[in-house]
Each structure stands twice: as structure tokens, then as C-alpha cells.
Amino acid sequence: TRVDKAGYRHFMAKEIAEQPTVLAGALSAYLDGDDIDFGEAGLDFTGTERLTMVACGTAYYACLTAKYWFERLAGLPVEVDIASEFRYREPPITSGTTALFVSQSGETADTLAALRYCRDKADRILSVVNVDESSIARESDLALPIHAGVEVGVASTKAFTCQLNVLLLMAIEAAFQRGRITAKEKAQHLADLRSLPGIFNVALERDEIIADSARDMVEARDVLFLGRGLMYPLALEGALKLKEISYVHAEAYASGELKHGPIALIDASVPVVVMAPRDSLFDKTVSNMQEVMARGGNVLLVTDAAGAAAAGSEVWRTIILPEVPEMLAPLLYALPAQLLAYHGAVAKGTDVDQPRNLAKSVTVE
Ligand code: G6P
After folding, report:
1. pLDDT number for residue 1
2. Where is the active site (predicted)?
3. Averaged confidence pLDDT in the chain
4. Mean pLDDT, 10 residues at a time, over the chain (365 residues)?
């Protein structure tokens, strides 16, 4: 398939803006009324005792996010690992294990090797891929497409949110099959998901405000990202994106780890991006934020209106997103993570779609 930039300055900008459309398309491919359609064979989680998820890069952060969903919604124990570590550690895989591989390209060498390691050990091999005819898809018992369409930008954007979408659908289905949620609750989760593309479109209108913050942020030498719970993997993804395309050193920490090291770095020269919708963990994150501000740190808070009102006036900059149900927040908060990196890179004049030293698909070890 030939794809062009459709009037956008970069593929990355186009792929970010496309997210409401591709997410809506993916949902209509998977949803059939109040049922989730995983294909003819279906997807049964009733006998699953644990899930082992393996991936690289951005796909790995999608797995880290999904761990919260599978554990909290479905009560399913989840292990997540980086493919290059997993494959050489000889991890014991016991019966009852479903192995799940997430890969945009379906060709990442380490992820494929990890899959092959699990081949005769796990009960079954599942994958979540963007390229349906890829090696990882072919070698899986069931490959679930994310329906993101061709992604050209080296830094993954729409593939990430589309991976999250499929992983959340799987977690909802697992929760239902395992009797952890009722049919009514399942229908509510699906209705929430269906509202997401519209909410995402509203959030895209924050583009200019995010660009302003990004321009200030990339002046810094180091940037710290903080998040708790579902926002922790998002913080990791935000830091990765910034490193990848704007070449600014960025690190992410779980907010609760701030005291265990990174707080030593805080001064007025290190912007701290805090991802925190007003959810059940918000107050804890606010106290971490106050620790940063008390040391002269500049907080860039990404939150919703309620969070902005509760955060106080000391915050350096606030990006306000629409309110979403807690479980959906990672899909929406991916957007500011992407746009901060994108506009930061544009301001610095880097090669956004082809960042130095990076490849779209790493097919050699
Ligand atoms: C490369 C790409 C990343 C991607 C990672 C995993 O590093 O630059 O964007 O997240 O590979 O790729 P995969 O195709 O397995 O998702």
C-alpha cells in the first residue's frame, strides 16, 4: 500500500491525527453489539492461570499498561517482559500459561525469538500485531490485528493506541468470562470505548497548547516524566517518544519512586511532566508534585478539569484533557505524550519521521 502525508508536514503528525478514525475502525471490526468478536475460534480465558506478555519498545509499554487491565479487571496474574531479556533468561513456563506477544511490525527479531521459546511450553501463543502476514502473526495460534493501517513514522503512535485498544478488549472479555464483571458492566466498558474516538477528537484541539509547552520543554537538557498506576507506563512512553525524536534526555519514574532517587535531580532546569487524571490515585500524585515544586521544579501537569482545579496554582503549565473513565485514560493520555515529543522535535528541527540511529523494525538482534 502506498501512503502519503495527506497534507501533513510529517507522517508522525498524520498518524497522530488519524487515531480517532483508526480507533473507530478497529472498534467496529471487533464489536458486534455487546459482544466482542475475536474471530471464528473465539478467545477463551476461563482456563488461563497466568498471562506472560513479551515485547520491545513502545509495544512493551502497551503490555505494561495491559497488565493493570488484566489484573484489575480480570483478576489474571500477568508478567511482562522485554523480549531481549526474556529470551535468554530461560524463564520457566508452566501449564496454564498463555503467552502474548505484541508487535507492530510482527518482525522484531527478539520478540519472534521469545515467541519461539514459548512455542512448546505455553498452553497457547497469542499475538497482537499490525501486519497480519508477519512472522509473529503466522507463528501464533491466534493473531489479533490492531487495524492501525500502515505506520510510517519510526516513532510509533497510532499503533500504540490501537494495541491498547485490542488489549483492553481482551481484558474486558477475560473479566467477563471469568465472572469478574457482569454482562451489564461489560456493555458499559464497551460503550465507554465507543465514546473514545469522539473524546480523542476533542483532545486533538489541544494541539496548539501542547505545542507551546513542548517548545519550552525541549530547551531543557533533561526531562522527567512521572505517573502512577495506569499512568506509569504512559510516563515511560512519553519519555521514550521524547528521547527518540527530539533527542532530549528523558526519564520516567513511577511517582512513588520519586523519593528513591530522581528527586535528587530536581531544580528549575528539569521540567517534570506529570500525567495524572483525577482518578483514585490523584491525591497521591499531587503530593509527589508538591515535593517537586517545593524544590523549585517546573511541573507540566497533564490532567482533566477536575485535576487542574485541585492541583493548585504553583503548577508551571497545565494541559487539560476531557474527562474519561479511569480504564480508558491510557488511550487518551497517549496523545499529549505523542504531541509533546512531536512538537518538541519540530521546534528543534530534527528529522521527525526518520530519527537518527533508529529503525522502524528491528529484524536483527
Ligand atoms: C523499534 C521501533 C519502535 C517499536 C519497536 C518494537 O524500536 O522504532 O517504534 O516500538 O521497534 O517494534 P514492533 O514492530 O515489534 O512493535
Report:
1. 61
2. 360 (for fru-6p isomerization activity)
3. 95
4. 86 96 98 94 95 98 98 98 96 96 97 97 98 97 97 93 98 98 98 97 96 94 96 97 94 94 90 95 92 94 96 92 96 98 95 87 85
Q: Which atom of ligand 1 is nearest to the CA of 155?
A: 9
pLDDT at residue 364, rounded to an integer: 82
Side chain identity at residue 197, one-letter code: P
Hey, is 85 helix, strand or coil?
A: helix
Return the C-alpha cell found at 193: 470505548
CA torsion angle for 350, 18, 332, 205 (degrees, to 10)?
80
d(CA 253, CA 67): 17
190 C-alpha to center of ligand 1: Å?
28
CA separation, residue 148 to residues 139, 243, 282 (Å)? 21, 23, 31
The x, y and z cell numbers of residue 93, run together, are 513456563
- pTM for this one? 0.97
Give this complex's ipTM.
0.97
**DSSP line for 224-267:** EEEE-TTHHHHHHHHHHHHHHHH--EEEEEEGGGGGGTGGGG-S
pLDDT tens readout for residues 242-271? 999 999 999 999 999 999 988 889 999 999
Ligand 1 in contact with 104 (CB < 6 A)?
yes
Residues belonging to the active site:
360
Comparing CA positions, the residue from 125, 6, 14 lying closest to residue 352 is: 14
Best residue among 16, 60, 65, 105 to mutate for probing ligand 1's pocket (most ligand atoms within 8 Å of CB) is 105
Q: Is 361 in the pocket of ligand 1 (CB under 6 A)?
A: yes
Exposure b/e, 106-135, CB count within 10 A at least 16 = b: bbbbbbbbbbebbeeebbbbbbbbbbeebb
Phi, psi (5° rounding) for residue 322? -60, 155
Distance, CA of 331 to CA of 204 (rounded, Å): 13
| Cα angle value 230/234/235 (rounded, 5°) | 110
Q: Is the CB of 347 under 6 A from ligand 1?
A: no
Grid coordinates representing 213? 509547552
